[in-house]
Structure formats: C-alpha cells, structure tokens
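User: Quick sanity check before I run a bigger batch. Here is a single chain. Can you write out its predicted 3D structure?
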Amino acid sequence: MSSKSWVRGLLQVFLQGLIILAPIVITIWALTSLFNFVDSILPDIIEKIFPEFSNYNLPGMGFIVAILIILLVGYVSSSFVVGKLVELFDSILQKTPGIKIIYTTVKDFFEAFAGNKRKFDKAVLVAIESPDIWRIGFVTQEELAEFGLNDYVAVYVPQSYAFAGHLYFVKKDRVRIVTDIGSADAMKFAISGGVTTIDDEQHERASNN
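Assistant: Done. Predicted structure follows.
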C-alpha cells in the first residue's frame, strides 16, 4: 500500500469517527452547559444574600430548585388571583419605557415556540427572489392591514446552521402551505441545510391530517 493510499484511508477513518462523535459530543456539551448555567443561578443568589453558606453547594440542587420553581409558577398561575397578579405585572412591564422592548421581545419569542400563541406551527414554501426558487418558512401573521398590506402575510425564514432568520412580507399567492410534513420536521430540514431526513411517521401523520 502506497503512503498516499494509507493517508487517504486514515483520513477516511478519521472523518467517519468525526461524523459519529461530533453530534454526540456537541449535544452533550450543549446539555451540560445548559445544566451548569441553570444550576449556578441559585448558588450565586444564595452566596450574595448569605455569604456564610457559599461553601455549601450541592451540585444539581440549583437545577432541581429551578425546575420546581418553574413548575410551581406554572401551576399557581392557573388560579384566578395569581393569574390577575401576573396580568397586572405583565401590563406594567409592557408599559415601562425601555424595559417593554426587552420584555415583550423575549415573551413573544418563547410564546412563539411553546406558548398558547405558537407561531412556528404553519410551515410553508415561499418564493421571494424568484417564482421558481422556494424557501422553507413559517407564517407568523396572516393579516398585515396595520402595515397597509392587505394581500400579504408575514413569513419567517430560518437560516441553515444558525439560530437566526429573516422576516419577509410576502404576497399570499407566493406562499404554499406545506401539508405533507410537520412543522418540526420542516424547521429541522431548513436549519440543517436540507441534509436531514424527514421522519416517516410524522410524514405519514401529516399526510393523513
């Protein structure tokens, strides 16, 4: 075997190992980073309020307490009294200059993915630059009368390999609703640059619906 063939074979084995390990390592790193970030919130607060307890840090306790607090807030928010207090606090933050920009943006972002006002649940194909070139997008607003655009819809187009995207106002006749695949698969396909595969079960479920 020539040295060139040996190097090529070694490179192929290296790339194969990289393809297997990279997604696993990156996923573990992302989850670990998220866990450590959440877990450090409570100890940092306790250390500032009670410095004498700074040495009593039990790994994982901060994460568990944070999850319990989130569950508690979600549970009590359904009650009438707490719900009214949340609405009052929400109204104050939305009317406070400066703060309202940050608060409403973050709130709308989370509600778009997981709240009752979910926005990224209507996948579409949208033609922007040319009628023959299509992009995957998500309709976020179906009425744009406030912008003076009666025949347009707002379409968010995600970028590949990034947590970013672009918002376009597009004529309704240049938008096609995607019915054969679910919105989650459409988002995954767009972000991956088209290299991921569509889940067969979700594809069949979306087609039946």
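The mean pLDDT is 78.

User: Great, the batch can go ahead then.
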